[in-house]
Amino acid sequence: MGLVVGGVEVDQGRWVFGYGSLMWRPGFPSQERRPATLHGRRRAFCIYSVHHRGTYQRPGLVLGLAPGGSVRGIAYQIADADWPEVYAYLREREQPTETYVEATAQVRLADGRRAETLVFVSDTRHPQWAGMLSLERQAELIAGAVGLSGPNVDYLRDLVVHLREEGIRDAAMEQLLQMVEARELALHSHTRRGASEPEDALP
To answer: From the candidates 92, 94, 102, 199, which is the catalytic residue?
Structure first.
């Protein structure tokens, strides 16, 4: 039984909140997995990617939690015995370039309880912080960007597919994917046209 505050039970265990790949690929053991909502932050492509989904010359974008709105994700309860190893794993996974910072945030679980969770949010002071970009600008950056882990559009598409599997329809992410796919199609059509045009005849 958790602490009851204002008629709402607040679970006192150790929890982790995931809003991206942690939702479907956590990589750690958990006692409980619950859909959850975090208020005050929203899912956004707000971090420049210069390695995995882009380059320094042609940066892409990866996911972060930007200020404002709310976000639906997954909360995991971690056993006390597992916590040191899980915490070390998460720090290594989420902070390789320190573009994310640790925070504690209260989320509402699907069953009505609240839980204090560890969550990694975007560091707005980091050089790779892209800021509050419009969907149009996000689409411009994602379309055509490729890094060590593959095309940036694949990262976005994978996100949308997995969100749908969790029963989450993120309107902004769905719209962004449509915009990026349209741009990718235009880029590929332009490339094919350029390749098929005959070279100028030699004098």
So the answer is: 94
The answer for 27, left when phi > 0, alpha when psi is -120 to 50, beta otherwise, is: left
Known catalytic residue at 199: no
Structural Rg of the chain based on CA atoms: 20
The single residue listed with the structure tokens 């882990």 is 149
Q: How far is CA 3 from CA 37, 114, 202, in A?
A: 19, 10, 83
Mean pLDDT for the stretch of residues 32-44: 95
SS3 category, 184: helix
Nearest to 101 by CA among 119, 116, 115: 119
Query: Distance between CA atoms of 33 and 77, rounded to whole angstroms?
Result: 7
Q: Is the dihedral of CA 194, 179, 150, 98 positive or negative?
A: positive
pTM, whole model, 2 decimals?
0.81
Beta bridge partners of 42: 66
> What does pLDDT average to over the chain?
88
pLDDT of 9 over the 90 cut: no
Listing DSSP states for 105-153 in one string gives EEEEETTS-EEEEEEEEE-TTSTTB--S--HHHHHHHHTT-EETTEEHH
* H or E segment and range at residue 176: helix 171-196
| 96-115 CB burial, b ≥16 within 10 A, e <16 | eeebbeeeebbbbbeeebbb
